[in-house]
Design goal:
By secondary structure, the protein is mostly helical. It has 2 domains: 217 residues, ABC transporter involved in vitamin B12 uptake, BtuC, CATH 1.10.3470.10; 133 residues, Winged helix-like DNA-binding domain superfamily/Winged helix DNA-binding domain (Arc Repressor Mutant, subunit A, Orthogonal Bundle). It contains 19 helices and 3 strands. A hairpin with a 6-residue loop joins β2 and β3.
Length: 436
């Protein structure tokens, strides 16, 4: 009962310390989800990794200056100022490498990440004998459990600032992420927008140092946005979903860490985000299971359409297909490169759809009334595509059947009517260019 009561008190935020931790990490997760979505669309998801590692030299330098001057070396604000300046310097170096050389973004990010983190580790070893130097590890691994009201206010300000900028310049930032070349051609200040985006990432990264640390903030910037991608294809909705996933990860991870004293909060928060990502990956509307189901349905539909068209073309070769007649399975095997097993599978699925009906002889197949009409429509659409590709796409007649096979299944009623208006066929059914 005590364990249940403890969990209930944590989930309902009865404790003041728990409220501070949960609210702070939830706000950080929401802001990171929004800005991480833009990074994902910009194909710079590892930018958070670069920035988090680039902040280490600034933190150590600020600590060394404070300690040398005899000031309190554990002051929060000067260390974060140093982290911000160092992170912005890393961004500047990366942008300079990207714009003055022919190196790609991933190469520039890798250079900045390794060099700045190497400098930070070397500096960390140099100041290890100074008083309170051990406290610097909290910026690397985070100290979520010791978050106070001041931290909550600071992260709230950063989160509100980031969300406000995204709301005001959302269209411009999205255009930058999708097509920076087009944005530049339209006269938008691409370099300024790019630096603004990286500046927002820097602010969010620095704000997360106290709660999850400079290493684990990477996951907060990447995982919620990546998980949201499996739920929607719209940018605005993706940002909202990423913010919800980030906030939920922070709330769940911080709550679980409060209930399990031996579990580090930063790691538990990342594990909670990873669990949500796994659920999204498998069960989201754009996830693995739904996509596999859609691909399976598409494969079945394409196979059934090919079967019906092959039957109709065999009927057409035997004469005008004004009457439905049984078709030999041997003729079908000659018509397509099907194996007997694959043909039997297609016939079973066509029968389940009501496209074929039982035939007295097992070596023949007979179209149903609905299947005959569908076969006629499918064949007509295929011929329309063939004629369209020959006339407008300059496809060789010897290859047009294969190309039409690849695109005919996306035809909708409106597209068919448009093709019919363009081609103005005389016959109810265009002639078969492959008839023997």
């Amino acid at each position: 009962m005590n364990s249940v009561q403890t969990w209930w008190e944590i989930l309902t935020l009865h404790s003041h310390n728990t409220r501070m931790v949960v609210l702070t990490t939830a706000l950080l997760g929401a802001g990171s989800g929004v800005i991480g979505s833009l990074l994902l669309l910009r194909k710079r998801s590892l930018m958070g990794d670069v920035l988090s590692h680039a902040t280490l030299p600034g933190i150590v330098a600020a600590f060394a200056l404070l300690s040398t001057a005899g000031l309190a070396a554990k002051q929060w604000f000067p260390l974060l100022v140093g982290a911000t300046l160092s992170g912005l310097a890393g961004v500047g170096v990366m942008v300079a490498i990207r714009r003055t050389t022919r190196l790609r973004d991933d190469v520039a990010m890798g250079i900045v990440l390794s060099v700045f983190f190497g400098i930070g580790v070397a500096m960390l070893q140099m100041v290890r004998d100074l008083p309170d130097a051990a406290g610097l590890s909290s910026f690397i691994y985070g100290k979520t459990a010791s978050i106070i009201s001041f931290d909550l206010v600071g992260i709230s300000i950063v989160a509100v600032l980031v969300l406000s900028v995204v709301l005001l310049l959302g269209k411009e930032l999205v255009l930058l992420c999708f097509d920076d070349g087009f944005a530049a051609a339209q006269g938008w200040p691409v370099a300024m927008l790019d630096f603004l985006l990286l500046g927002l990432v820097t602010l969010m990264t620095v704000a997360g140092l106290q709660s999850v640390g400079l290493v684990l903030i990477i996951a907060f910037l990447i995982i919620p946005a990546a998980a949201a991608r499996f739920w929607t294809g719209r940018v605005g909705t993706m940002m909202a979903v990423a913010a919800i996933i980030g906030a939920l990860s922070g709330w769940a991870g911080a709550s679980a860490s409060a209930a399990l004293p031996d579990a580090p909060a930063g790691a538990v928060i990342v594990l909670a985000a990873a669990a949500i990502f796994a659920i999204s990956l498998i069960g989201g509307p754009r996830g693995v299971w739904c996509r596999q189901r859609e691909l399976s349905r598409l494969k079945d539909r394409v196979g059934r359409q090919h079967l019906l068209r092959s039957i109709f073309e065999i009927l057409e070769d035997a004469g005008p297909p004004t009457a439905n007649r049984p078709v030999s399975l041997d003729d079908l095997l000659e018509q397509r490169s099907w194996s007997p097993r694959e043909l039997r599978r297609l016939l079973r699925r066509a029968r389940r759809h009501g496209s074929t009906e039982p035939c007295g002889n097992g070596g023949f197949v007979l179209l149903s009334e609905a299947g005959f009409g569908e076969a006629s429509r499918i064949t007509r659409n295929h011929r329309l595509w063939e004629i369209y590709l020959i006339r407008h796409a300059d496809i060789a007649p010897s290859h047009v059947d294969r190309d039409a096979d690849m695109v005919e299944h996306i035809l909708g009623p409106e597209m068919v009517r448009q093709l019919e208006r363009e081609l103005d066929p005389v016959l109810p059914l265009p002639p078969n260019p492959h008839a023997r």
